[in-house]
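Q: I have 418 residues here and want to know how they pack in 3D. Can you give me a structure?
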Amino acid sequence: MKKKLVLTALFYLTALAGGAQVQPSSALMGAWTGKLNVMGTSLTLVLHLDEAEGHVKASLDSPDQSAKGIPCETEFLSDDSVAVKVAMINATYRARLADEGLNGTFTQMGMSFPLILKKGEETLRRPQTPQQPYPYKTEEVTFCNEADGATLAGTLTYPVGFETMKKGRVPVVLMVTGSGQENRDEEIYDHKPFLVIADYLARRGIASLRYDDRATGASVGGEVANATTEDFMRDAAAGIACLRSMKAFGRVGCLGHSEGGSIAFMLASRGQADFIVSLAGPGVKGDTLLAAQVNRIMKSAAMTTEKYRQQAAVQQSPWMRWFIDYDPAADIRQARCPVFALNGDNDCQVVSSLNLEAIRRLLPPSKKNLVKEYASLNHLFQHSTTGLPMEYRQIEETISEEVLDDIATWIVNQAASR
């Protein structure tokens, strides 16, 4: 979820030019991890001191922000002390080896914070990630969006016992990721939500196809730098067409997360999906959504307006300009197929009280539609405290079991009602 509408971070970490090299010191070589506490928020930082051709290569990770391998300039290194500089963010870290690890100070833009780093890297538990062997069949498939020159590669997951099921009755869903170039599992912070969903659906009699975004993973071709949601919608439409062409399934639906939720409504309005599931999909115009997002995040993180403006400036891409102007109202009004729209009340990125209520108001009346808000769930549908993106990595849960059950139950009901 490279973009995922995230417009905030405590420190915007950018790839930097490396600094002077020094002779390595064995006592401090390796990875060092600690928590930087700023304004009530804990940010994981990892300092790497690695040997390269007889010298030391230093780099910094901020895994809570998906920033890795940021080169640092090594100013000083001995058997018990280290000083590194990250010039472009005006930051330094100076520390001395003590009983508890590296005891030092992180300084940025005139502000100093204590930072203790301990040897080694964090081991994160992801208990919901499925482990092979799976009790169902999977198949690698490719499909083409010829208009955009994109060949998409993905995994088709058949439900348990598919061989004995009646042909043409099994429902199937195409999974569409959120914004940014993501792999077929929609992987973020070692979480693999689309893999978890595909596994759960397969055990409930539902097939699925999830794919790497264009020019990502095993997918090739297609414009990326200037692409907008409309372009990515054509990729998804090609996936829907691929599933229909197999003639192995019954109803063909779309399950989209965040931007993928917008794409699901676009497909529905064009009559290309038999049903859709919108996970935290936008319900209001882009500029309105972003204003609510900024207000929610700034309030929760005590973020200053100036810091937001500095970081929002990097978001001015063709994708962002299209998103700001896009109003999903017409697509939502024209969605004639069954719709399940859901969100969590702790979502700081697509605020549910604004977006979910707009979807509820705009949807054509239908007893098959379901609009549901979940208590304490964030943008990834994890149980959370603040809902801020900084929490995503630290939460072991990948996606709420209640949400998984509701999605599977609703899809099964749509298949049974044809």
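Q: Anything worth noting?
A: Residues 1-21, 304-314 have pLDDT under 50 and may be disordered. Residues 266 and 331 are 6 Å apart (CA to CA).
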